[in-house]
């Protein structure tokens, strides 16, 4: 098996694994995997195993992209994301919290003569299509539970939008949240708060990944 860095996206990675019956069966067939306990296949990144298992069930990956990822999409990764969506590997969901944060970009901020706010909102609408969730009372309640369990130092008004995004993705059982935010949403105290609350409520926390784990430059 070649270097994982050779693949331009996880779509190519999945195709490569699927073309190798030994690799694919070992990940997607527990009986085969248990018959190879010493195989270095089990040393692959957990996210790769997760993608293979999802693909074996012929289900698209259901993801929510945090607000901070839209600037990255504008700069370099939008074509890859659109390709994943069109190939039915990925469904991107949005929510009112994310769209509202994009709308807070100053109207007079422009890039190459165009409104930066409108550029990012257009990207949001293009990739989420009709897959956008409102902020329901259940999500607000869950976000408040995260706040009560949170032991970090970020102010409530700053971190609550992140907690709402995670709560919405959790309630709707999304697979992943794509975020570059290591200081609030993906900080240690925040991750521990999600785990504590969701475990108590028997909810599954979505996996947190960076945009580069879906696409490569």
Describe the structure.
- The structure is a single chain.
- This protein has 217 residues and is of the alpha/beta class.
- The chain has 2 domains: 4-56, no CATH class; 61-213, 5'-nuclease (Rossmann fold, 3-Layer(aba) Sandwich), CATH 3.40.50.1010.
- Helices cover 53% and strands 11% of the residues.
- It has helices spanning 10-18, 21-28, 30-34, 46-56, 69-86, 96-103, 116-128, 137-149, 156-171, 188-200; strands at 61-65, 90-95, 110-111, 114-115, 132-133, 176-178, 207-209.
- The strands form 2 sheets. Strands 5-2-1-6-7 form a 5-stranded parallel sheet, sandwiched between helices. The chain has a two-stranded antiparallel ribbon with strand order 3-4.
- Strand 3 (110-111) and strand 4 (114-115) form a beta hairpin.
- The longest helix has 18 residues, at 69-86.
- The radius of gyration is 19 Å and the shape is globular.
- The two termini are 21 Å apart.
Largest sheet, order of strands side by side?
A: 5-2-1-6-7
How far apart the termini lie comes to 21 Å
CATH topology tier name of the largest domain = Rossmann fold
The Cα radius of gyration reads 19 Å
Give the name of the CATH superfamily of the largest domain: 5'-nuclease
The shape, in one word, is globular
**What is the architecture of the largest domain at the second tier of CATH?**
3-Layer(aba) Sandwich
Task: Tell me, rounded to a whole number, the average pLDDT.
Answer: 82
Question: SSE order, as H and E?
Answer: HHHHEHEHEEHEHHEHE
Strand content: 5-15%
Output the structural class. Answer: alpha/beta
Low-confidence stretches: 1-10, 20-44
CATH class of the largest domain: Alpha Beta
Q: Total number of helical segments?
A: 10
Largest sheet: 5 strands, parallel
Helix content: 40-55%
Please indicate the count of domains.
2
Query: Count the strands?
Result: 7
